[in-house]
Backbone:
């Protein structure tokens, strides 16, 4: 049954540090009517992603922040329920940006039809969508791994990291994962195919990482920052590449960490080892790179060469706690909220 109202989760207050449930508020609005050229769609799956934490902050970033009282943004899979747009009809399944709500209007520019034969449409949010593309672009276009090189991946069982590791293996590299805890590390090796995985919570993590990379590190896929990067830095080889995808260890930080200023040491390494460190924002690359990604990834998925573990959360009202848990590392795999039935 479709809801007769539009439930929305809005930003109630800006978090200081870790978000709390109080920072979110559930509201109910009338379901909007599409005007000429518009599409109304009902959200089925909502993707939860670490970048959402950044949008809760005030101040400049690579996209404007969510306004106080504004609906939390987010990628979705949704079903068209009313259309006055020539390219979309009722019943179509689309990838969309409905955000944290049951229904949203669109002018169609942000909608993409999902192949009705896709057995698992939620994968349009992960393996076959933004997450998979992030892994593919960062690793192949910036990391440029060569067969036989050592690729180290932070948050190796996370949504992005798990795909990076699997592609790194397809490219013939030695893939070393970094993950939190024995269960995730076992999964990284047994299921994702990493050659080895190191627990970043182990007291001797840095020593274990050094032992696991006897030939140094050629590509480090950065998802995390913090203590993990500090352990990686001394191990980077001459001409190493570091795609900087995310820094989740810092997203809840309210001030700089205490301790010595490591910038001179970092820059000295970058210089003497000729290291390439390059950040990227995947939204910049859809127009030029998404088609190539789809060409490569679709057969990999169909042939079972790349897979995605999904962590489903039932109900829109559970999204705030699920985002808090995601940031704290309490989920295992790509976090997807079941908002309405398929
Ligand atoms: P993940 O699934 O990797 O994020 C959650 C995981 O991060 C947790 O399960 C935890 O894994 C790990 N983590 C959290 N805090 C720490 C910490 N202090 N130290 C080490 N690990 C930590 O999320 P995604 O795969 O969706 O995203 C990965 C990164 O990529 C994020 O930083 C995200 O912001 C970024 N990103 C960037 C994009 C871009 O365009 N540049 C696009 C998409 C994502 P564990 O239990 O193993 O510690």
Residues:
């Amino acid at each position: 049954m479709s809801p007769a109202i539009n439930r929305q989760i809005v930003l109630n207050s800006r978090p200081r540090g870790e978000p709390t449930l109080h920072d979110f508020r559930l509201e109910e609005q009338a379901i909007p009517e599409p005007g000429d050229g518009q599409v109304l769609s009902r959200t089925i799956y909502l993707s939860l992603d670490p970048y959402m934490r950044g949008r809760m902050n005030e101040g400049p970033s690579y996209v404007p922040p969510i306004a106080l009282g504004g609906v939390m943004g987010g990628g979705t899979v949704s079903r068209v329920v009313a259309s006055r747009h020539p390219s979309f009809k009722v019943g179509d399944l689309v990838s969309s940006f409905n955000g944290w709500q049951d229904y949203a209007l669109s002018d169609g520019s942000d909608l993409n039809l999902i192949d009705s034969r896709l057995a698992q449409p939620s994968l349009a949010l992960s393996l076959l969508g933004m997450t998979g593309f992030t892994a593919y672009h960062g690793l192949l276009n910036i990391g440029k791994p060569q067969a036989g090189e050592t690729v180290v991946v932070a948050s190796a069982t996370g949504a992005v990291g798990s795909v990076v590791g699997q592609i790194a293996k397809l490219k013939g590299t030695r893939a070393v994962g970094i993950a939190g805890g024995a269960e995730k590390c076992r999964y990284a090796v047994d299921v994702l195919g990493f050659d080895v995985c190191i627990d970043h919570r182990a007291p001797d993590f840095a020593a274990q990482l050094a032992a696991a990379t006897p030939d140094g590190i050629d590509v480090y896929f950065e998802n995390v920052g913090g203590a993990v990067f500090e352990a990686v830095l001394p191990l980077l080889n001459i001409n190493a590449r570091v795609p900087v995808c995310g820094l989740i260890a810092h997203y809840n930080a309210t001030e700089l960490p205490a301790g010595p200023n490591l910038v001179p040491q970092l820059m000295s390494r970058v210089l003497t080892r000729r290291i390439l460190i390059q950040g990227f924002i995947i939204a910049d690359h859809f127009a030029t790179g998404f088609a190539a990604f789809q060409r490569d990834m679709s057969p990999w998925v169909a042939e079972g060469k790349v897979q995605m573990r999904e962590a489903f959360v039932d109900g829109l009202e559970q999204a705030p706690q699920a985002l808090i848990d995601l940031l704290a590392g309490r989920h295992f795999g790509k976090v997807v909220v079941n908002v309405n039935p398929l």
Q: What stands out?
A: The chain has two domains: 6-126+308-338, 130-282. Residues 286-302 form the longest helix (17 residues).
